Every structure is written in structure tokens, then in C-alpha cells.
Amino acid sequence: xxxxxxxxxxxxxxxxxxxxxxxxxxxxxxxxxxxxxxxxxxxxxxxxxxxxxxxxxxxxxxxxxxxxxxxxxxxxxxxxxxxxxxxxxxxxxxxxxxxxxxxxxxxxxxxxxxxxxxxxxxxxxxxxxxxxxxxxxxxxxxxxxxxxxxxxxxxxxxxxxxxxxxxxxxxxxxxxxxxxxxxxxxxxxxxxxxxxxxxxxxxxxxxxxxxxxxxxxxxxxxxxxxxxxxxxxxxxxxxxxxxxxxxxxxxxxxxxxxxxxxxxxxxxxxxxxxxxxxxxxxxxxxxxxxxxxxxxxxxxxxxxxxxxxxxxxxxxxxxxxxxxxxxxxxxxxxxxxxxxxxxxxxxxxx
Length: 350
Ligand code: NAD
Ligand code: DAU
Hints:
alpha/beta, Rossmann fold, UDP-galactose 4-epimerase, domain 1, 7-stranded parallel β-sheet, 3-stranded mixed β-sheet, 12 strands, about 45% helix, binds 2'deoxy-thymidine-5'-diphospho-alpha-D-glucose
């Protein structure tokens, strides 16, 4: 039985990765390590929490001694590392937290893996999950490839870029078997409602303003989260150690066009007159250092490992909106307490 560590498994993408792995690989023992920050929620994993080959450990990857002991206790053979501070706006108001978790936390995991795998690295793998934001911002043309030079602009992307460099450095210096992927914007169920899609679905539902940064002209490349989890599965099992794979949906949307589409779909679903929800659009001060355009070239992953996105965007968006409308209890639970304080600071006191 293979023992696998998934970090950040109570978060948005991590919970989809845990679900896929425990359902698809009953022969693996999956340990989910998560600190349960505001973004981590065990309710995301209710359907798998009692499976005998799954277990949850609450802990902080910034605590090096704790991480080392956990590796010694479980003798993990594979690591899929997703735990991170992930929201760009929070990285602008509190950059240091991002250095601790994203950089030091990653180095602690690398040290522990290096320590327990040093005699027998064969068959082991440290998979680092990263973002397209490390590549910076594109103009109107072109795509990010695996060769694109790193050019991060936000404290979030700078911390992820730094962690990527450490992962590659441990491969080149210590021979640690690693693989990396850099993915575009994910959407789907269980995303914390500070991010564009769930926040705007929630606000449209509740007739609250839709705070569009700048002119809404920034472009993002959207991928259904379950397709990201499928890509992680394929890369973990068939990717070449030392390599990087870009993951993306070839699905670029200007923010304002996407928001208008969401408004139209929700007017229909909520039985509102056409154009009702668009009136909620409110242009607010732009995000500092706001990258204009992200677009991923995922041809390496498609060519070498045969992965392709499974879902058309319009279908995925409908499914996603339905999920949030049908899971208001989940939303109410995660939007209480600390989140309300954050929301007020981010959008009201500007
Ligand atoms: P998320 O914020 O939803 O989840 C992060 C999880 O990490 C949470 O469960 C949180 O509790 C946990 N965590 C945070 N700090 C921790 C610590 N110190 N110790 C242990 N656990 C900790 O993030 P997400 O959107 O699911 O992103 C997951 C990963 O994927 C991140 O590494 C992110 O950079 C990357 N990524 C995200 C996207 C996206 O669109 N969301 C796209 C590409 C890559
Ligand atoms: O590209 C991958 C990245 O995608 C991940 O690495 C990050 O973890 C993830 O958070 C996401 O980053 P973005 O900054 O692109 O996502 P966000 O949902 O915060 O914003 C999407 C776009 O919408 C961006 O151009 C900013 C804009 N926006 C966002 C919010 C929250 C608004 O106009 N208003 C808002 O209130």
C-alpha cells in the first residue's frame, strides 16, 4: 500500500484532489495535512471522511519539527503539495504570511522528504502544485509555456515563484525526485467566496454590489477544478521527474464579459427580468499591480500525457452556479466570522 501526503487538502483544489485520489485509488493510504486556516474547511470532504484509507491531520507546514516528525511517522512515498496562502488581495495586505506558508512551509516539506528518501529516492515523488501567475502578465498576444521567464508581480506570485525555485533547486542540488505544474484560474464547487466567481455568485444571489476592479478588462484563463485534479493525477503517475507541466483551459475571458454572462445566467435561474443583475456591477479601485492577461499553453501536457479538459466552459459555469445556489448552507458557514471582517476591509473602507 502506497502512503501519500496531500497538503492543503481541506482547501478548494486540495479537496477535489483528495476526493479523486481516495475514490480512484483504494490501495493508497492518503493523509491530508491542513492547518485549517480561514480557507480550509473539512465540510468540503464530508463524503470521504470515513473511508478507512483516508485520514486527516491538522498541522502547520511552517512548523519544521512537526513536519519532520510526521514524515518519520508515516514514511510517505509521495507528496502532493497544495497548501498555500492563495489569495492575491490578501497578499497585498499581509505579504509576510505568504512568505511563511508558501516559501518556508514548502522548504520544510522538501527537507523532510529529502531526509526520509535519501537512501532510497527511487519510486518517490514530491509534486509541487503552482500557478501561472509566476510568469507575470501577457499583452494581447501569446501564451505562457514551460520556458517562459518568471516575472511575478504580486507578493502571492513572488512567494509561489520562490517556492518553485526551491523545489527545482532541491532536484538539481540533492537529486530529490520532484515534478511541478503551473495552472491557470480554477473554478468549481467549494471555492472560498473571496475569489471572483463564488463572490459574485453570492453577491448576485443577495442583490449586493459586484465590485469590478479597474475597468474589468483583465483576462483570465478558466479551468474547471475537477479537470485540474485529473491533470494532477496524470502528472503524479506518469509525469517525468524534474519536469514542469503547464495546465490550462484554453478558455480566456475578459472579467467584465464573464461577469455579464454570470448575470445573464443567474437572472434566468433566479427568475429575474433580463438585465436585473447587471445593475449590481460597480467599478471600484483597481487591484495594485493587477496583471492584465494570463493564458496557458498546455500543449506539452496534452501531447506527452494525453490530458485534455473534459468540460466546455458554459456547461461548467452553469454547474458551478447551480452548486453554489444549492449549497447556501456551506456558503453561510464560510462567510461568517473572520471573513466578514476581511470583506469589510477589502471593499468598504476604500
Ligand atoms: P485555498 O486557499 O482554497 O486552500 C489552501 C489550503 O491550504 C487551505 O485548506 C488552508 O487551510 C491550507 N493551508 C494554508 N496555510 C497552511 C499551512 N501553513 N499549513 C498547512 N495548511 C495550510 O487554495 P486553492 O485555491 O485550493 O489552491 C491550492 C494550491 O493550488 C495553491 O498552492 C495555489 O497556489 C495553487 N493554485 C491555485 C489556483 C486557483 O485558481 N485557485 C490556480 C493554480 C494554482
Ligand atoms: O491564475 C491562477 C491564480 O488564480 C491562482 O494562483 C490564485 O490562487 C487564484 O486566487 C487566482 O488568482 P486571481 O487573482 O486571478 O483570482 P481572483 O478570483 O482573485 O480574481 C480574478 C480576476 O477578477 C482578477 O483579474 C481580479 C478580478 N476581481 C477579483 C475580485 C475578488 C475583481 O474584479 N473583483 C473582485 O472582487
